[in-house]
Design brief:
Layout: H1 9-21, H2 23-26, E1 45-46, H3 47-62, H4 68-84, E2 95-96, E3 99-100, E4 103-104, E5 117-118, H5 119-135, H6 141-154, H7 158-161, E6 171-173, E7 177-178, H8 190-197, H9 206-213, E8 218-221, E9 224-227, H10 237-241, H11 250-255, H12 259-276, E10 293-294, E11 300-304, E12 307-311, E13 315-316, H13 332-335, H14 341-354, E14 368-369, E15 379-380, H15 386-400, H16 403-408, H17 412-420
Antiparallel strand pairs: 1-4, 2-3, 5-6, 6-7, 8-9, 10-13, 11-12, 14-15
Protein backbone atom coordinates (compact mmCIF):
# COMPACT_ATOMS: atom_id res chain seq x y z
CA UNK A 1 0.00 0.00 0.00
CA UNK A 2 2.98 2.32 0.35
CA UNK A 3 3.97 4.93 2.90
CA UNK A 4 1.07 7.16 3.96
CA UNK A 5 3.37 10.16 4.28
CA UNK A 6 4.31 9.96 0.59
CA UNK A 7 0.71 10.59 -0.50
CA UNK A 8 -0.70 13.97 -1.52
CA UNK A 9 -3.02 15.63 0.98
CA UNK A 10 -6.14 14.55 -0.93
CA UNK A 11 -4.92 10.98 -1.36
CA UNK A 12 -3.92 10.76 2.32
CA UNK A 13 -7.27 12.04 3.55
CA UNK A 14 -9.21 9.76 1.19
CA UNK A 15 -7.27 6.69 2.26
CA UNK A 16 -7.59 7.40 5.96
CA UNK A 17 -11.31 8.08 5.57
CA UNK A 18 -11.87 4.77 3.82
CA UNK A 19 -9.77 2.99 6.43
CA UNK A 20 -11.87 4.53 9.19
CA UNK A 21 -15.15 3.61 7.46
CA UNK A 22 -14.09 0.01 6.92
CA UNK A 23 -14.31 -0.51 10.69
CA UNK A 24 -18.10 -0.68 10.28
CA UNK A 25 -17.85 -3.46 7.75
CA UNK A 26 -15.33 -5.45 9.77
CA UNK A 27 -17.00 -5.20 13.20
CA UNK A 28 -20.74 -5.14 12.51
CA UNK A 29 -23.26 -7.95 12.83
CA UNK A 30 -24.91 -7.97 9.39
CA UNK A 31 -27.95 -9.78 10.78
CA UNK A 32 -29.06 -6.96 13.09
CA UNK A 33 -26.84 -3.98 12.27
CA UNK A 34 -25.21 -3.79 15.70
CA UNK A 35 -21.61 -2.58 15.68
CA UNK A 36 -18.93 -3.44 18.24
CA UNK A 37 -17.65 -0.74 20.55
CA UNK A 38 -14.07 -1.83 19.88
CA UNK A 39 -12.22 -4.34 17.69
CA UNK A 40 -11.21 -6.34 20.76
CA UNK A 41 -12.51 -9.89 21.05
CA UNK A 42 -15.84 -10.12 22.85
CA UNK A 43 -16.59 -6.41 22.65
CA UNK A 44 -20.30 -5.58 22.99
CA UNK A 45 -22.17 -3.18 20.76
CA UNK A 46 -22.15 0.53 21.60
CA UNK A 47 -25.39 2.19 20.51
CA UNK A 48 -23.49 5.43 19.84
CA UNK A 49 -21.19 3.59 17.44
CA UNK A 50 -24.30 2.37 15.61
CA UNK A 51 -25.35 6.01 15.20
CA UNK A 52 -22.00 6.85 13.66
CA UNK A 53 -22.21 3.76 11.42
CA UNK A 54 -25.65 4.69 10.09
CA UNK A 55 -24.31 8.12 9.15
CA UNK A 56 -21.17 6.66 7.59
CA UNK A 57 -23.13 4.32 5.30
CA UNK A 58 -24.30 7.41 3.43
CA UNK A 59 -20.67 8.48 3.03
CA UNK A 60 -19.80 5.03 1.67
CA UNK A 61 -22.53 5.26 -0.95
CA UNK A 62 -21.38 8.70 -2.09
CA UNK A 63 -17.77 7.52 -2.34
CA UNK A 64 -18.60 4.27 -4.14
CA UNK A 65 -17.54 1.99 -1.29
CA UNK A 66 -21.04 0.48 -0.94
CA UNK A 67 -23.85 0.05 -3.42
CA UNK A 68 -26.85 2.15 -2.44
CA UNK A 69 -29.17 -0.88 -2.23
CA UNK A 70 -26.73 -2.76 0.01
CA UNK A 71 -26.34 0.23 2.31
CA UNK A 72 -30.11 0.74 2.48
CA UNK A 73 -30.60 -2.92 3.34
CA UNK A 74 -28.04 -2.67 6.15
CA UNK A 75 -29.72 0.45 7.52
CA UNK A 76 -33.13 -1.19 7.32
CA UNK A 77 -31.99 -4.27 9.26
CA UNK A 78 -30.58 -1.98 11.94
CA UNK A 79 -33.80 0.01 12.31
CA UNK A 80 -35.90 -3.17 12.31
CA UNK A 81 -33.79 -4.48 15.17
CA UNK A 82 -34.26 -1.35 17.29
CA UNK A 83 -37.96 -1.25 16.47
CA UNK A 84 -38.58 -4.86 17.48
CA UNK A 85 -36.18 -5.22 20.42
CA UNK A 86 -37.63 -5.29 23.97
CA UNK A 87 -38.40 -1.85 25.42
CA UNK A 88 -39.73 -2.96 28.81
CA UNK A 89 -36.85 -1.55 30.85
CA UNK A 90 -35.96 -4.91 32.31
CA UNK A 91 -32.37 -5.67 33.35
CA UNK A 92 -31.83 -7.80 30.24
CA UNK A 93 -33.87 -5.85 27.71
CA UNK A 94 -32.64 -3.44 25.06
CA UNK A 95 -34.17 -0.20 26.28
CA UNK A 96 -37.02 1.73 27.85
CA UNK A 97 -39.20 4.73 26.99
CA UNK A 98 -37.61 4.91 23.54
CA UNK A 99 -34.08 5.13 24.97
CA UNK A 100 -31.50 2.34 24.80
CA UNK A 101 -28.93 0.82 27.09
CA UNK A 102 -25.40 1.99 26.35
CA UNK A 103 -23.93 -1.45 25.62
CA UNK A 104 -25.75 -4.40 24.06
CA UNK A 105 -24.89 -8.01 23.31
CA UNK A 106 -23.78 -8.15 19.67
CA UNK A 107 -25.97 -11.14 18.89
CA UNK A 108 -29.09 -10.80 21.04
CA UNK A 109 -29.15 -7.08 21.69
CA UNK A 110 -29.64 -7.62 25.43
CA UNK A 111 -28.13 -5.18 27.92
CA UNK A 112 -24.63 -6.07 29.15
CA UNK A 113 -22.39 -5.00 32.03
CA UNK A 114 -25.40 -3.66 34.00
CA UNK A 115 -24.88 -0.47 32.00
CA UNK A 116 -27.09 2.60 32.11
CA UNK A 117 -29.94 3.58 29.84
CA UNK A 118 -27.88 6.32 28.18
CA UNK A 119 -29.41 9.60 27.04
CA UNK A 120 -26.39 10.91 25.15
CA UNK A 121 -25.67 7.61 23.44
CA UNK A 122 -29.33 7.29 22.46
CA UNK A 123 -29.12 10.82 21.03
CA UNK A 124 -26.08 9.86 18.94
CA UNK A 125 -27.92 6.73 17.76
CA UNK A 126 -30.94 8.86 16.81
CA UNK A 127 -28.73 11.33 14.97
CA UNK A 128 -27.55 8.46 12.79
CA UNK A 129 -31.09 7.19 12.33
CA UNK A 130 -32.35 10.61 11.23
CA UNK A 131 -29.35 11.11 8.93
CA UNK A 132 -30.07 7.82 7.19
CA UNK A 133 -33.78 8.69 6.91
CA UNK A 134 -32.95 12.04 5.34
CA UNK A 135 -30.49 10.51 2.89
CA UNK A 136 -32.45 7.46 1.74
CA UNK A 137 -35.33 9.25 0.04
CA UNK A 138 -36.39 6.62 -2.50
CA UNK A 139 -39.00 3.84 -2.65
CA UNK A 140 -39.00 0.26 -1.36
CA UNK A 141 -36.53 -0.33 1.46
CA UNK A 142 -35.80 3.39 1.57
CA UNK A 143 -39.45 4.22 2.21
CA UNK A 144 -39.50 1.75 5.11
CA UNK A 145 -36.30 3.29 6.49
CA UNK A 146 -38.04 6.68 6.72
CA UNK A 147 -41.14 5.21 8.36
CA UNK A 148 -39.22 3.27 11.00
CA UNK A 149 -36.87 6.18 11.70
CA UNK A 150 -39.80 8.49 12.29
CA UNK A 151 -41.48 6.00 14.63
CA UNK A 152 -38.26 5.41 16.59
CA UNK A 153 -37.71 9.14 17.07
CA UNK A 154 -41.32 9.85 18.02
CA UNK A 155 -41.46 7.21 20.75
CA UNK A 156 -38.57 8.67 22.79
CA UNK A 157 -40.02 10.11 26.00
CA UNK A 158 -37.71 13.07 26.63
CA UNK A 159 -40.07 14.48 29.28
CA UNK A 160 -39.66 11.34 31.36
CA UNK A 161 -35.88 11.79 31.12
CA UNK A 162 -36.17 15.19 32.80
CA UNK A 163 -37.25 13.38 35.97
CA UNK A 164 -39.31 16.36 37.16
CA UNK A 165 -36.45 18.83 36.68
CA UNK A 166 -35.66 21.34 33.93
CA UNK A 167 -32.50 19.63 32.67
CA UNK A 168 -32.00 15.98 31.75
CA UNK A 169 -30.33 13.19 33.65
CA UNK A 170 -27.35 11.39 32.17
CA UNK A 171 -29.05 8.05 32.51
CA UNK A 172 -31.24 5.53 34.31
CA UNK A 173 -30.88 1.98 35.60
CA UNK A 174 -33.64 -0.47 36.44
CA UNK A 175 -31.84 -1.31 39.68
CA UNK A 176 -31.73 2.24 41.07
CA UNK A 177 -33.64 4.63 38.82
CA UNK A 178 -32.19 7.89 37.53
CA UNK A 179 -28.49 8.50 38.02
CA UNK A 180 -27.73 11.21 40.56
CA UNK A 181 -25.75 13.46 38.26
CA UNK A 182 -26.71 15.53 35.25
CA UNK A 183 -25.05 17.57 32.54
CA UNK A 184 -23.17 20.62 33.79
CA UNK A 185 -20.93 22.85 31.72
CA UNK A 186 -20.58 22.89 27.94
CA UNK A 187 -20.03 19.44 26.45
CA UNK A 188 -21.23 17.08 23.73
CA UNK A 189 -24.86 17.23 24.91
CA UNK A 190 -25.91 20.00 22.50
CA UNK A 191 -27.18 17.42 20.03
CA UNK A 192 -29.11 15.71 22.84
CA UNK A 193 -30.97 18.93 23.64
CA UNK A 194 -31.59 19.76 19.98
CA UNK A 195 -33.14 16.34 19.31
CA UNK A 196 -35.07 16.42 22.59
CA UNK A 197 -36.48 19.87 21.85
CA UNK A 198 -37.42 18.89 18.30
CA UNK A 199 -39.67 15.99 19.34
CA UNK A 200 -43.30 16.25 18.17
CA UNK A 201 -44.44 13.85 20.91
CA UNK A 202 -42.59 14.28 24.21
CA UNK A 203 -40.32 17.33 23.76
CA UNK A 204 -37.96 18.68 26.35
CA UNK A 205 -39.04 21.96 27.86
CA UNK A 206 -37.26 24.99 26.43
CA UNK A 207 -36.23 26.16 29.89
CA UNK A 208 -34.04 23.09 30.21
CA UNK A 209 -31.67 24.23 27.48
CA UNK A 210 -31.39 27.67 29.05
CA UNK A 211 -30.78 26.12 32.47
CA UNK A 212 -28.01 23.95 31.06
CA UNK A 213 -26.45 27.03 29.44
CA UNK A 214 -26.39 28.78 32.81
CA UNK A 215 -23.68 26.27 33.87
CA UNK A 216 -21.34 27.16 30.99
CA UNK A 217 -17.84 28.51 31.72
CA UNK A 218 -16.81 31.36 29.40
CA UNK A 219 -13.12 31.92 30.02
CA UNK A 220 -10.08 33.74 28.75
CA UNK A 221 -7.31 31.18 28.44
CA UNK A 222 -3.93 32.05 26.95
CA UNK A 223 -5.46 35.28 25.59
CA UNK A 224 -8.23 33.29 23.89
CA UNK A 225 -11.92 33.77 24.75
CA UNK A 226 -13.57 30.38 24.73
CA UNK A 227 -16.57 28.47 26.05
CA UNK A 228 -14.57 25.96 28.03
CA UNK A 229 -14.71 22.21 27.76
CA UNK A 230 -11.44 20.35 28.21
CA UNK A 231 -11.67 17.16 26.08
CA UNK A 232 -11.48 17.73 22.33
CA UNK A 233 -14.31 15.30 21.52
CA UNK A 234 -16.83 17.48 23.36
CA UNK A 235 -16.15 20.18 20.76
CA UNK A 236 -16.61 17.72 17.88
CA UNK A 237 -19.43 15.25 18.49
CA UNK A 238 -22.42 17.55 17.96
CA UNK A 239 -20.55 19.22 15.07
CA UNK A 240 -20.31 15.89 13.27
CA UNK A 241 -24.01 16.28 12.46
CA UNK A 242 -24.96 19.93 13.01
CA UNK A 243 -23.53 22.72 10.88
CA UNK A 244 -23.08 25.48 13.46
CA UNK A 245 -21.51 27.95 11.03
CA UNK A 246 -23.37 31.24 11.25
CA UNK A 247 -26.14 30.11 13.61
CA UNK A 248 -26.19 31.24 17.22
CA UNK A 249 -28.27 30.72 20.33
CA UNK A 250 -28.76 33.41 22.97
CA UNK A 251 -25.52 32.53 24.74
CA UNK A 252 -23.41 32.88 21.62
CA UNK A 253 -25.22 36.03 20.45
CA UNK A 254 -24.23 37.64 23.73
CA UNK A 255 -20.60 36.56 23.19
CA UNK A 256 -20.58 37.64 19.51
CA UNK A 257 -19.42 34.16 18.55
CA UNK A 258 -20.87 30.81 17.46
CA UNK A 259 -20.13 27.19 18.31
CA UNK A 260 -18.11 26.63 15.14
CA UNK A 261 -15.81 29.56 15.97
CA UNK A 262 -15.64 28.31 19.54
CA UNK A 263 -14.34 24.93 18.41
CA UNK A 264 -11.67 26.71 16.36
CA UNK A 265 -10.69 28.58 19.53
CA UNK A 266 -10.55 25.31 21.49
CA UNK A 267 -8.28 23.78 18.85
CA UNK A 268 -5.98 26.78 19.10
CA UNK A 269 -5.80 26.18 22.86
CA UNK A 270 -4.89 22.54 22.33
CA UNK A 271 -2.05 23.54 20.00
CA UNK A 272 -0.83 26.24 22.38
CA UNK A 273 -0.93 23.73 25.26
CA UNK A 274 1.10 21.25 23.23
CA UNK A 275 3.68 23.91 22.47
CA UNK A 276 3.85 25.07 26.09
CA UNK A 277 3.90 21.47 27.41
CA UNK A 278 3.55 22.49 31.08
CA UNK A 279 4.09 18.94 32.41
CA UNK A 280 7.07 18.16 30.16
CA UNK A 281 5.59 15.14 28.40
CA UNK A 282 7.59 13.60 25.60
CA UNK A 283 7.05 15.03 22.10
CA UNK A 284 4.24 17.44 22.95
CA UNK A 285 4.47 20.40 20.58
CA UNK A 286 2.35 22.60 18.35
CA UNK A 287 1.98 19.74 15.87
CA UNK A 288 1.52 16.95 18.43
CA UNK A 289 -1.79 17.41 20.26
CA UNK A 290 -5.29 15.94 20.55
CA UNK A 291 -6.11 15.37 24.22
CA UNK A 292 -9.58 13.89 24.58
CA UNK A 293 -11.52 10.85 25.80
CA UNK A 294 -9.90 7.58 24.91
CA UNK A 295 -7.84 4.59 25.87
CA UNK A 296 -4.81 4.97 28.13
CA UNK A 297 -1.96 2.90 29.51
CA UNK A 298 -3.44 2.16 32.99
CA UNK A 299 -0.01 1.82 34.59
CA UNK A 300 -0.79 3.87 37.69
CA UNK A 301 2.00 5.76 39.45
CA UNK A 302 5.54 5.40 38.12
CA UNK A 303 8.81 7.27 38.28
CA UNK A 304 10.25 8.05 34.86
CA UNK A 305 13.42 10.07 34.25
CA UNK A 306 13.44 11.16 37.88
CA UNK A 307 9.84 12.44 37.80
CA UNK A 308 6.73 11.04 39.42
CA UNK A 309 4.15 10.23 36.76
CA UNK A 310 0.61 8.91 36.98
CA UNK A 311 -0.98 7.14 34.02
CA UNK A 312 -4.67 6.39 33.51
CA UNK A 313 -6.75 3.91 31.55
CA UNK A 314 -9.77 4.78 29.45
CA UNK A 315 -10.90 8.22 30.57
CA UNK A 316 -11.69 11.75 29.46
CA UNK A 317 -8.55 13.89 29.34
CA UNK A 318 -8.64 17.66 28.79
CA UNK A 319 -6.83 20.94 28.14
CA UNK A 320 -5.61 22.98 29.95
CA UNK A 321 -6.92 21.79 33.33
CA UNK A 322 -6.42 18.10 32.71
CA UNK A 323 -6.31 15.35 33.54
CA UNK A 324 -3.32 14.84 31.27
CA UNK A 325 -0.87 11.94 31.43
CA UNK A 326 0.90 12.43 28.10
CA UNK A 327 -1.69 10.40 26.14
CA UNK A 328 -3.08 11.78 22.89
CA UNK A 329 -5.69 10.40 20.48
CA UNK A 330 -3.89 9.91 17.15
CA UNK A 331 -7.10 10.41 15.14
CA UNK A 332 -8.05 13.68 16.81
CA UNK A 333 -5.94 16.12 14.81
CA UNK A 334 -7.31 14.93 11.45
CA UNK A 335 -10.86 15.04 12.82
CA UNK A 336 -10.52 18.82 13.14
CA UNK A 337 -10.16 19.28 9.35
CA UNK A 338 -13.34 21.39 8.95
CA UNK A 339 -12.02 23.91 11.48
CA UNK A 340 -8.57 24.40 9.93
CA UNK A 341 -7.04 22.10 7.37
CA UNK A 342 -3.45 23.36 7.74
CA UNK A 343 -3.24 22.55 11.45
CA UNK A 344 -5.02 19.21 11.03
CA UNK A 345 -2.85 18.02 8.15
CA UNK A 346 0.46 19.35 9.47
CA UNK A 347 -0.10 17.64 12.82
CA UNK A 348 -1.26 14.39 11.24
CA UNK A 349 1.71 14.23 8.89
CA UNK A 350 4.11 14.97 11.75
CA UNK A 351 2.57 12.15 13.79
CA UNK A 352 2.62 9.64 10.92
CA UNK A 353 6.21 10.50 10.07
CA UNK A 354 7.43 10.23 13.67
CA UNK A 355 5.28 7.34 14.85
CA UNK A 356 3.81 5.42 11.88
CA UNK A 357 2.71 2.60 14.20
CA UNK A 358 -0.23 4.72 15.43
CA UNK A 359 -2.11 3.97 12.20
CA UNK A 360 -2.04 0.23 11.45
CA UNK A 361 -4.01 -0.78 8.35
CA UNK A 362 -4.99 2.86 7.68
CA UNK A 363 -6.88 3.14 11.00
CA UNK A 364 -5.75 5.29 13.90
CA UNK A 365 -5.45 3.66 17.31
CA UNK A 366 -7.49 5.16 20.16
CA UNK A 367 -4.56 6.28 22.32
CA UNK A 368 -0.83 6.80 22.15
CA UNK A 369 1.64 7.80 24.87
CA UNK A 370 5.32 8.25 23.93
CA UNK A 371 6.23 9.31 27.49
CA UNK A 372 5.62 5.82 28.83
CA UNK A 373 8.86 4.23 27.68
CA UNK A 374 8.32 0.67 28.91
CA UNK A 375 7.95 -0.04 25.20
CA UNK A 376 10.68 1.38 22.91
CA UNK A 377 8.35 3.69 20.97
CA UNK A 378 5.89 4.39 23.77
CA UNK A 379 2.51 2.90 24.70
CA UNK A 380 -0.09 2.25 21.97
CA UNK A 381 -3.72 1.28 22.47
CA UNK A 382 -4.70 -2.18 21.29
CA UNK A 383 -7.00 -2.30 18.28
CA UNK A 384 -9.55 0.33 17.33
CA UNK A 385 -12.61 2.08 18.78
CA UNK A 386 -15.72 2.59 16.68
CA UNK A 387 -16.44 6.10 17.99
CA UNK A 388 -13.01 7.30 16.82
CA UNK A 389 -13.42 5.82 13.35
CA UNK A 390 -16.95 7.11 12.86
CA UNK A 391 -16.21 10.64 14.00
CA UNK A 392 -13.12 10.80 11.79
CA UNK A 393 -14.93 9.54 8.68
CA UNK A 394 -17.77 12.03 9.21
CA UNK A 395 -15.56 15.03 9.88
CA UNK A 396 -13.47 14.29 6.80
CA UNK A 397 -16.64 14.16 4.70
CA UNK A 398 -17.94 17.41 6.16
CA UNK A 399 -14.61 18.99 5.25
CA UNK A 400 -14.63 17.58 1.72
CA UNK A 401 -18.30 17.83 0.71
CA UNK A 402 -20.45 18.89 3.68
CA UNK A 403 -22.56 15.76 3.10
CA UNK A 404 -23.56 14.99 6.68
CA UNK A 405 -24.23 18.64 7.54
CA UNK A 406 -26.42 19.09 4.46
CA UNK A 407 -28.24 15.79 4.96
CA UNK A 408 -28.94 16.34 8.65
CA UNK A 409 -30.26 19.86 8.28
CA UNK A 410 -32.89 18.63 5.81
CA UNK A 411 -34.56 16.88 8.75
CA UNK A 412 -37.45 19.05 9.95
CA UNK A 413 -37.07 17.85 13.55
CA UNK A 414 -33.52 19.20 13.65
CA UNK A 415 -34.62 22.64 12.52
CA UNK A 416 -37.45 22.68 15.07
CA UNK A 417 -35.06 21.65 17.85
CA UNK A 418 -32.52 24.32 16.97
CA UNK A 419 -35.17 27.03 16.80
CA UNK A 420 -36.69 25.98 20.13
CA UNK A 421 -33.18 26.18 21.60
CA UNK A 422 -33.07 29.78 20.39
CA UNK A 423 -30.77 29.40 17.40
CA UNK A 424 -31.06 31.96 14.61
CA UNK A 425 -29.16 32.91 11.47
CA UNK A 426 -28.02 31.84 8.04
CA UNK A 427 -29.42 28.44 6.98
CA UNK A 428 -32.07 28.51 9.74
Amino acid sequence: MGDLTELSDDALVNRLQRGAFSYFLDYANPENGLVADTSRSGSPCSIAVVGFALSCYTIAVENGWLERAAAANLVLKTLQFFTQSPQDGGPDSTGYKGFYYHFLDMRTGARVWQCELSLIDTALLLAGILTAASYFNGDGDESEIRALADALYRRVDWRWAQNGTETVSQGWKPECGFLHYGWEGYNEATILYVLGLGSPTFPLTQKGYVSWGSTYQWENLSDTDVLYSGPLFTHLFSHAWIDFRGIRDAFMREKHSDYFKNTKAAIALHREYGERNPHDFKDYNRNFWGITAGDGPSDGALQLDGRDRRFFGYMSRGVPYGPDDGTIAPWAMLATLPFGADAALTGTRHLLTTYPQVCPNDRFASGFNPTLTAQPDGWLSEGWYGLDQGLLAMMIENYRTGLIWETFRKCSYVKVGLKRAGFEGEWL
